[in-house]
Amino acid sequence: MMSKGRIEAFSDGVIAILITILVLDLKIPHGEDLRSLYPLLPVFLAYTLSFIYLGIYWNNHHHMFQLAARISGWVMWSNLHLLFWLSLVPFTTGWMGENHFEPLPTALYGVNLLMAAIAYWILQQSIIRAEGSHSKLAVAIGQDWKGKLSPFFYIAGIALAFVAPWVSQAIYVFVAVIWFIPDRRIEKIL
């Protein structure tokens, strides 16, 4: 059995680096008045949303691993799979923000969120498989309605990006809001 401390420390480090990379897209304005900040507003809004998403993943990842007792090789690969999709967040965020939420960048951002959600689900299932169907994590997540509904919202956001990108953004914000508070089911088990 492998130690979960290493996987947690590695994941924490990667997410911290990703948050740091995100802020590098915020350029210093060329001007001293508030009007000089206006062109940076889309980049700042995209940054804020992605910062929140990375924070949500970090928080929920932490809670999930608090219930994990066994770490298999498959759990480690599943964790790397999640980190791969999260590592693309600065790229899709930057492209979307720099292009003022145009349809294709907004859709690709949604694809990135969808793939990260799928990867998180795979990681969660890998932990449950390593510990058994009656593990603390399996009991804690129960029906997992947020986990099951989120991909459908992302798919809707991706499709709507080509019709009304602002609706896609609203959907992405909505999903972030429902995930913002850590899952209390896990906290009850802890």
Give a short overview.
By secondary structure, the protein is mainly α.
Mean pLDDT: 93
**Poorly predicted regions:** none
Work out the helicity level: over 70%
Shape: globular
Oligomer: single chain
Strand elements, count: 0
Estimated structural class: mainly alpha
H/E series, N to C? HHHHHHHHH
Tell me the span between the first and last alpha carbons: 21 Å
Number of domains: 1
| β-strand amount | under 5%
Number of helices: 9
Rounded radius of gyration (Å): 18 Å
Overview of the structural elements:
The protein has 190 residues and is mainly alpha-helical. The protein is built from 9 helices and no strands. The longest helix has 29 residues.
Name some characteristics of this structure.
single chain, 190 residues, mainly alpha, 9 helices, 0% strand, globular
List the helices and strands and how they pair.
Elements: H1 4-23, H2 41-67, H3 73-87, H4 89-98, H5 103-131, H6 136-141, H7 145-160, H8 165-180, H9 184-189
Helix pairs in contact: 1-2, 1-3, 1-4, 2-4, 2-8, 3-5, 4-5, 5-7, 5-8, 7-8
